[in-house]
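Deliverable D4.2, example record:
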Amino acid sequence: MVGLGDTTAMLAKRRRASGSGSTKGSGFREIEEFGFNPGRLQMLVYAPEHLGSGAPLVVALHGCGQGGAEYASRAGWTTLADRHRFAVVAPQQTSANNPNRCFNWFNPADVVRGQGEVASIAAMVDWMIKTEGCDPTRIYVTGLSAGGAMTIAMLAAYPDVFDAGAVIAGLPYGAAESVLGAMSAMQWGDGRSSASLAADVPAMADQSLPRLTIWHGQADHVVAPSNADAIARQWATAQGLAPETDDIVETADRTRYVWHGVGARKALIELNLIKGLGHGAPLSTKGPDGVGSAGPFMLETGVSSTSEIAAFWGLAGEPVDMPLDAIQGERLSPGRHKGPTADAHSPPHPKSVSDGVGGQVLAALSGRIPASVEKIIARAFRGAGLTK
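Output generated by the structure prediction step:
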């Protein structure tokens, strides 16, 4: 089982290997003055030549240690932008904001409308609409890991800005309010009820929530796969849908859960759990239709999350929803079905330590650090009120 020490060490190694997030040779340009920037983020833009006004816009949010241009290019968003004529904004975190260059999705000051990092990203979108002429009715956001968690924060804080979104290996809105809480949610998932999850989503009068597609690896040991189920239940319940899925389709490479809603022409929510996939974005990079390039957390699987997300949004010139009957797999009987459960995809919650975030972190560290150091950390957690 991967613990806290493994996770932080991996992120640090990935940060060192990824460099400074340079845009050299990527086709991106940096916009230094784009307006309100309380989150102190960098704005990187990719636009195909002669794009013109009225084009859709995709906001791509990188994971920890990645750069904005690196993530958007490796995921294949720049290739699809050229192929299907849309613009890409890649907000970029700085090490001054977060030493591992993670978006601060766990900091309450960064995920509330009009504040912090979400406000900076919203200002980038506004700049693209006003300056580049992007279509305000076709704005989309996606992200991986910390970027996935920030994606759901953008959709929750600015549902009036986005037509749809896509979360890859992310966490639900409000899953944590501190670094320790973030580590706990990543390791053990978010076990709150559907009603409690939905209560965290801000309500806006007469504003429906954007459509959402969720992707997660069933073998992800960095962000517990039960978080994907929590996102789906949060999003369904917040917009008045039943937390149970309408349809489930089992194929060789995934299990796909779908929420349609009453009278909806398109799927409102879909959840794809990819069999055998660890922490990262599933890619299909080979052949004439391949997009993206494999690398750390960008995983060749033969399944292109990027292309399927673009199709779900209606950007790729394909059906906006994959007909269930067209999928080569076993379709379960129609009607309500329970989604994936935490027990099926997550390590058990530690029972041998005190409750609380500190206890969960100590459980992750147990056996990986000297006992004397563990005692010092335990005393510090008790002093901070993080353990009993």
